[in-house]
Amino acid sequence: MMARLVGIILGVILATSGYVIAGLGVLGGWAQDLDLGPFEPHRPFVGWAAAITGALLLVAALTPRPRRKPRRKTVMVDLGEPLAAAVVAVETPPEAEPVMTPVVLVEPEPAPVAAAPEPPPTPVETFAELRAKLVELSRTETWPEAARVLTRLLRVAGDDHEKALAHRDLGDFARAQGRLDEAAEAYEDAVGYARAVRAARPDDASVDDLLAGALAGVGDVAEIEGRLNEALSAFEESLALRRSHGGREAADPGARRALSITLERLADLREDRGHRMRALDLYRESYDVAARLAAADPARFGADLASTRARLAELEAKVAG
After folding, report:
1. Burial class of 59 by CB neighbour count within 10 A (0 to 12, 13 to 18, 19+)
2. Predicted confidence (pLDDT) at residue 40 exceeds the cutoff of 70
3. What is the DSSP string of 131-144?
4. Please, where are the H alpha helices in 40-179?
5. What residues does 103 pair with on adjacent strands?
6. How far apart (Å, rounded) are the C-alpha atoms in residues 14 and 101?
7. What is the CA radius of gyration of the chain?
């Protein structure tokens, strides 16, 4: 209240003084000759400033002020455990007590998670199954998958016999891909494993066939690379092994066909070295074996017999000429 009264008095004094100084009117003669000192040249401006300031003070003093709103009251309650309950403070008039409404927050129970079924164990492929798959993939020329199967075959191979077979297969695969250095190394490894097996089982004819096949691979790569002496040596040993168990009269058609092929491979090398009569004898022996096979199974071995007959006739013509 005192501030309002002081504002009114100051406002009246400033407003009336400014009114007279600015020359807007006369309120008696008290301010007409009032000397403003250094502000005398600015009398109108000083008068207006005083009048406006006084008017603003009067307006501020006479304007009613709004009532202050009551402040919201917040009641804090210690609940002991967190997240057990929350208290909501409700704003009430000054004469009323605050009403606290507890809201219980219940955490939902986690839904039971079903255990994921364990994947079935991956079946372990045997060495024989992998070799059969490799043969089929090679027959269909599915080389990328065949390479993956061959890698697993080399890893699964256990004893020397399986290692000899796996490395011989690796040599065949590498030779088919034109990687002769890798093929030669694989065949040499196969020969080494096969010799170890033959030393342990000297009377096993299947081991002789295994070693003979590895030696034939060595001879093939050596011939392609022009190492004819090494090729001759490998094919000679291979032929001796295939003959050692009566290959011509053996009951296994596969063994007899392998004998026929080895005879012809060696005959071709002999002819390249100028040994035509020796080559002719070898082809005649091969023709005898191929004829026996074709007579027993024409559908399977008829094409082999026709090829051998044509090659034999060509060589006989060269010898006769």
Report:
1. exposed
2. no
3. HHHHHHHHHTT-HH
4. 43-62, 127-139, 143-156, 160-176
5. 86
6. 58
7. 58
- Range 309-313 contact pairs with CB under 8 angstroms and sequence separation of 24 or more: 311/264, 311/283, 312/280, 312/283, 312/284, 312/286, 312/287
Whether 18 has a pLDDT exceeding 90, the answer reads no
If you ran DSSP here, which 8-state letter would residue 109 be given? P
Name the band, by pLDDT with cuts 50, 70 and 90, for residue 52: confident
Maximum Cα–Cα distance for the chain, whole Å?
165
Kindly give, in sequence order, each residue whose CB lies less than 8 Å from that of residue 135, ignoring residues fewer than 6 positions away: none
Token readout for 167 is 């490395």
DSSP 269: H
pLDDT band for 105, please (50, 70, 90 cuts). low
**Whether pLDDT at 87 is above 60:** no
Query: Which residue, chain included where needed, has tokens 């695969």?
Result: 173
How deeply is 131 buried, as exposed, middle or buried, from its count of CB atoms within 10 A (0-12, 13-18, 19+)?
buried
Confidence class of residue 90 from pLDDT cuts 50, 70 and 90? very low
Question: Which residue spans of the chain are classified as CATH 1.25.40.10?
Answer: 127-320
Q: Which two tokens stand for residue 134?
A: 């490799």
Cβ-in-10-Å burial (0-12, 13-18, 19+) of 83 comes to exposed
Average pLDDT across the chain, whole number: 80
What is the tens place of the pLDDT at every residue in 57-78? 777 777 766 555 545 444 343 4
Q: Which of 210, 207, 211, 228 is nearest to 219 (CA)?
A: 228
Give the CATH number of domain 127-320. 1.25.40.10
Nearest to 262 by CA among 319, 219, 210, 198: 219
